[in-house]
Amino acid sequence: MQPKILLVTSFYPEFLSDLYQAEPELSAMPYKEQHKRLFDTGFGVGDAYSANLRLLGCEAIDIVCDADVMQQAWADEHGLTQSGNIHDRRRQILAAQVEAFRPDVVYVFEWSPLGDEFLHAMKRKVALRVGQIASPIPENRTFSGYDLMLSSWPPIVDHFAATGMTSAYFRLGFDERVWERIGQQPRRFDVTFVGGFAPSHTARVPWLEALLGEVDIDIFGYGLDRVPSNSPIRDHFRGPAWGHRMFEILGQSKITLHLNATINVPGQASDDYACAMRFYEASGMGTCLLTENKSNLSDLLTPGTEICAYENMDQAIEIIRHYLTHDTERETIAQAGQARTLREHTYRARMSELLEILTRQLAARSSR
Predict the structure, then answer these.
(1) pLDDT tens-digit map of 49-91
(2) Are 255 and 332 part of one and the same domain?
(3) Which residue in 35, 91, 277, 286 has the fewest CB atoms around it within 10 Å?
(4) Do 138 and 227 share a domain, yes or no?
(5) Do residues 333 and 307 touch, judged by C-beta distance below 8 A?
(6) Residues 143 and 213 in one domain
(7) Please, which pLDDT band fits residue 275 given cuts at 50, 70 and 90?
(8) Interatomic CA distance for residues 310 and 319, integer angstroms
(9) Considering its fold, how many domains does the chain have in total?
């Protein structure tokens, strides 16, 4: 019998705020209807994990633990009274949802507002507690409440292994249903950047400013308040792009740009690896992606054939100018990247890999 899996995620507060402001009637809807609407937007990985795990015979559900209006609807419908601050209430609701579903596995996408103490308490309720993270490690977290840590960022895998935790390398992917839903888009934009200006992305501002001195870029994303008021980025900023709108913009781009984040692991800050959902999102939508050349990039997509990569800023500008005037070459790379992603990097394929990992861990724990 396949394991029951409860997946816990958190959505960007900016996205949740924008959605509920745009659709004020949403907050009065039952939990099930709010849940469907949130996942219908295609934000983040959506329900790609749970949907594909269900295809493999698992019972799997998604909880958005910081979607407070939706979570409160669940609590009200189940007669659950909470107390304490917002974080306490989130934990109380999630604990009740775990109790109601009785999963074998609680799978948490970090960063999560749950904390180590909550995860330790889950030990009495579930057989396996799994965390997935590919972002900076907070100094106030030990992650010791997990039985298994997964990451697409190799130094994070090494870090947890060095602390004695069970850890494994697990890559990100693309939800092919997005391509099936949106399909081929007209190329409306020459060059785009879609992404946020978060604390782990401080290099993006000077990087984009340098590029804007040479090429025109349409910029979409969030966190504009972190960009200096006199930055040229503001003149090129076109607003947020969440969920399916983001995928449409990627598909409408002749070239889209990506800069890897700097990931802080205790004692080390590194940007040495190619690791981002954008690789799969852009290539999955049939777009030519330009990023820095990293040591492991060819393990994901082949530079020059399935993706474009540069060594320095001058080369990046040269590549952009070249492929904006060589449509056939650019589209050949985009199509090759899409073919590779749809063949190897879908969440359907990833969930088969994940289920093998989880089954192996559950078996090992039951034999102790």
Answers:
(1) 999 999 999 999 999 999 999 999 999 999 999 999 999 999 9
(2) yes
(3) 277
(4) no
(5) yes
(6) no
(7) confident
(8) 8
(9) 2
Co-location of 226 and 254 in the same domain? yes
Query: Looking at the structure, do residues 27 and 148 belong to the same domain, yes or no?
Result: yes
Same-domain pairing of 165 and 183: no
CB 190 within 8 A of CB 330: no
- 155 and 116 in one domain? yes
CATH of the domain at 29: 3.40.50.2000
Mean pLDDT of 236-255: 97
Residues 190 and 169 in one domain: no
Residue 179, pLDDT > 90, answer yes
CB of 303 within 8 A of CB of 245? no
pTM reported for the whole predicted model: 0.94
d(CA 239, CA 91): 33
Burial of residue 52 (CB within 10 Å: 0-12, 13-18, 19+) is: buried
How deeply is 220 buried, as exposed, middle or buried, from its count of CB atoms within 10 A (0-12, 13-18, 19+)?
Answer: buried
